[in-house]
Amino acid sequence: MGSSGQAKRGYHHGDLRNALIKAAGQLAEQGGPKAVTVRAAAKAAGVTPTAAYRHFENHDQLLQAAKDYALDGLAATMQARIDALRPTTDPVRQAMGTLCAIGRGYIRFATSEPGLFRTAFEQGGSMVDGNALSKVDEAFQLLVRGLDKLVEVGHLNPADRPMAELTPWCSVHGFSMLLIDGPMRDLPDEMRESAVERMMTILMKGLSSKNVDDQLVADVLADTRVP
């Protein structure tokens, strides 16, 4: 049967929208945001463009769906690193480990899914305005909760909490871009890991309102390493 038959079956099954979103995500993964078009997604999903346009009127709608798909993947990767943390009874170490895991997960997603990562932040990602930082996607919410936890355990002074998200976010995002599109692209794995841990060390110390013991930092880094 031709593609029109496939389109009709997919459409009547009620799953065509999700199939197109997944196809858009795959297109973004392979070629970045510019590869995401309604026609290309329709072809990848095995349906006609006419069927696809019933769900997405234009490129912008489909691209937004692909961005949401990418951001969901980013959040899932970050959460997986949090879940992989070594257990500890020290609340400060746990909170610092969570923040470090969030950063590692962010970088991991960027380097393992560069097309999706670029798509997630195409045209500013899902941010609305400067006053809506706390309402952004789940990946950002993980960072928000991680920093709130630092305050809760006494590691970060409440007075230093407002807008504290910007420092770790800018750091790991810039680092990620250097790895996938910049001069750090060809770093050997060992050097890349050393660079990640050095950045995380500086972040953990910088996001503290008191002196941080070097052994605590070393323990946190060990807690967040995943083979």
**Helical fraction:** 55-70%
The number of helices is: 11
As residue ranges, the low-confidence spans are 1-13, 124-135
Global mean pLDDT: 84
Count of β-strands? 0
- Span of the ends, CA to CA: 46 Å
Morphology:
elongated
Radius of gyration: 20 Å
Structural class: mainly alpha
- Main pleated-sheet profile: none
Approximately what portion of the residues adopt beta-strand conformation? under 5%
Write down the secondary-structure element order: HHHHHHHHHHH
Key phrases:
0% strand; mainly alpha
Structure description:
This protein is mostly helical. It has helices at 3-12, 16-31, 38-45, 49-53, 59-83, 91-112, 114-120, 138-152, 166-181, 189-206, 214-223. The chain is built from 11 helices and no strands. The radius of gyration is 20 Å and the shape is elongated.
Topology record:
Elements: H1 3-12, H2 16-31, H3 38-45, H4 49-53, H5 59-83, H6 91-112, H7 114-120, H8 138-152, H9 166-181, H10 189-206, H11 214-223
Helix pairs in contact: 2-3, 2-5, 2-7, 5-6, 5-7, 5-8, 6-7, 6-8, 6-9, 6-11
Quick structural gist:
The chain is mostly helical. It is built from eleven helices and no strands.
